[in-house]
Amino acid sequence: MADVSILLIGASGALGKPLLDELIRQRHQFKRIAVLATPDRASKFSNSGVEVVVGSFFDAKSYQGFTHVISAVGNPLMVLQPAMVEVAVSAGVKHWYASEWNSDISQRQIQDLRYFRDKQAVRAYLRAKAAQEPNFQYTLMVTGIFTEWALDEFYGFDHQKLTAKLYGEPGRRIGVTSIPDIARYTIDSLRIPFEGPGRTLRVQGWTGKIEDLIRELEQVRGVKYEITWVDVSAAKELEEQARANEDDLSEMMYSIKPLLASGYGVADGVGKLDNGLFDFKPETPRETFTRVFNTQT
C-alpha cells in the first residue's frame, strides 16, 4: 500500500477524529496522510503529526497528489459530496469513501427516511460517476448504529433519571458497532482490493434485541431503566411539523428517532456481514459502555 495517499475530510468530527487516530496508528502503510482544513480550522491539526492541506472542498488543488479521499463530513455537508467528488476526480483522485457509516439504507423499509435522503443521493451519484470514469472506485461502509450513540439522549434516554422514551416496540433486532472499531474497519479496508466500480462493506460489532442492549448498559451501571414505548406516529407528526416549518435539521432528526427500535437499525438488512474479512475482535457493548461511562464519571 506504499502507493496509497489519503486525504481525510471532516477530521475534527465525532468519527473524523477516530479515523485520523487510526490513520496515524497505521501510518507506515501509506505513502501520504493529510487532513483537509479551511484556513480558520487549520491550527486545530498543527500538532496532529500529519500533513495539513489548507484549502476548499471545491478547489482541485486541495486534492492533487492523493489517490484516496475519506469523507467524514456531517449532516449539513452531506449533500455537497457529489460536488466534492467531481472536483476530486478532476484532480486525479481514484477512490472515494463516502460519509456513510450507518444502518443499511438499502433496506426498503427505511430507504425513504428523510435522514437518509442525502446519503441516497450520494450513493446514486457515485454509481453514475464510477460508470463514467473507469479508473474511479468508491466504498460504502455500513456499520449499524454507533454503540456509543445507540442509548443516547437523542434516542430518548435520560441517564440521570434512569428513564427512556423510545419510539417503537420491544423485541426488535438492532446492530451496533463502537466508534473506534468503525474507524479500524474503515482504515483496514484500504488493504482489501476489489474489482469493479464500487463496493459496500457491511460490518457489525454486536447484534441482538434492543432490550438486550439496554440490559448491557444496566449491568455496567448497576441500575435499572424505566422504559416507555411510544407509537412511531408521534415522531412522524413532529417530523411533518418540522417539514412544514422548513426546519430541515429537525425534520431529519425526527425521521430517524424510531430507527433504534424499528428492527432495521442493522448493517445486514439486505446482505451478509463482511466481518470475516478483518482480523480483529470488535468491542462488545458492555466494553463500550464501560469505557464511555467510566470516562464520564
Automatic annotation (TrEMBL):
The answer to keyword NADP applying to this record is: yes
Transmembrane regions:
none
A GO term for molecular function: oxidoreductase activity
- State the SUPFAM superfamilies in the record: NAD(P)-binding Rossmann-fold domains
**Can you give the residue ranges of the NmrA-like domain?**
5-241
Q: What InterPro entries would the database entry show?
A: NAD(P)-bd_dom_sf, NmrA-like, NmrA/Isoflavone_reductase-like
Supply the alphabetized keyword list.
NADP, Oxidoreductase
Matching entries from Gene3D superfamilies are given as:
NAD(P)-binding Rossmann-like Domain, UDP-galactose 4-epimerase, domain 1
Superkingdom is Eukaryota
Annotated protein name in UniProt: NmrA-like domain-containing protein
